[in-house]
């Protein structure tokens, strides 16, 4: 029996592994959404074994919609399916991250410039409210809620610029970045650093300074690369 097979046999149930709670659902899309969220948030750790039978029992469905959901997750690069060994949460592919950062810089660099041109007082108030919520979550060490507001901040900039579709594209592009960044938030002071970077971006937008807004966004998005190098040493089993 291979090492992967032994892990699959000995793997605990999804409900007991990492505290993952799964709602009973009836469609493969809903199963996909829940598993997708659990993987990206690291509730399901890289390398974790997934068993169709166990997942179907947790969701209260047959294996067919579970299999369909797993195939979609494999296409998204979030799980790996080995016919003779089983299905596993994929490790974070380090090689894919630099390209994702380049794409994100290109698109968000454009949106933040446009946002700086057109932002209204109401738009700035929206960003202020998001940053205020981030401060609260950072103070309470609520990393998941903090990450949600981080997403909201960047999504709002795309909306302010008039390009909400850019964020839809980026949500797919940055999946592996998001998984890695979840590991950085518990690091002491990291959430406060993110808030400071967001404030610099916010101030540049409020001043309608396109170039300063662009530079601040580039600095903010570049932080993930050195983080990855350090994270690989701290969590070697999570990366490929």
TrEMBL record:
Region span, Disordered: 1-21
Keyword Transcription: yes
Keyword annotations of the record: DNA-binding, Transcription, Transcription regulation
Residue span, HTH gntR-type domain: 25-92
Protein name: GntR family transcriptional regulator
Organism (species): Sinorhizobium numidicum
Classification lineage: Bacteria, Pseudomonadati, Pseudomonadota, Alphaproteobacteria, Hyphomicrobiales
């Amino acid at each position: 029996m291979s090492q992967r097979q032994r892990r699959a046999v000995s793997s605990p149930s999804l409900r007991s592994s990492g505290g993952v709670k799964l709602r009973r659902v009836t469609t493969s899309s809903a199963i996909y959404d829940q598993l997708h969220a659990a993987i990206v948030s690291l509730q399901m750790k890289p390398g974790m074994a997934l068993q169709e039978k166990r997942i179907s029992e947790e969701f209260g469905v047959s294996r067919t919609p579970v299999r369909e959901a797993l195939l979609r997750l494999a296409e998204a690069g979030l799980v790996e399916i080995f016919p003779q060994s089983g299905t596993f949460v994929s490790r974070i592919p380090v090689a894919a991250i630099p390209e994702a950062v380049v794409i994100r810089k290109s698109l968000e660099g454009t949106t933040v410039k446009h946002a700086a041109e057109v932002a209204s007082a109401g738009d700035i108030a929206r960003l202020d409210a998001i940053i205020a919520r981030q401060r609260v979550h950072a103070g309470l060490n609520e990393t998941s809620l903090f990450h949600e507001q981080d997403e909201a901040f960047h999504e709002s900039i795309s909306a302010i610029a008039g390009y909400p579709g850019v964020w839809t594209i980026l949500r797919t592009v940055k999946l592996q970045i998001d998984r890695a960044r979840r590991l950085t938030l518990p690091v002491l002071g990291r959430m406060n650093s993110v808030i400071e970077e967001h404030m610099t971006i916010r101030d540049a937008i409020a001043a309608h300074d396109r170039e300063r807004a662009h530079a601040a966004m580039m600095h903010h998005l570049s932080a993930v690369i050195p983080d990855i190098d350090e994270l690989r040493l701290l969590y070697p089993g999570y990366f490929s």
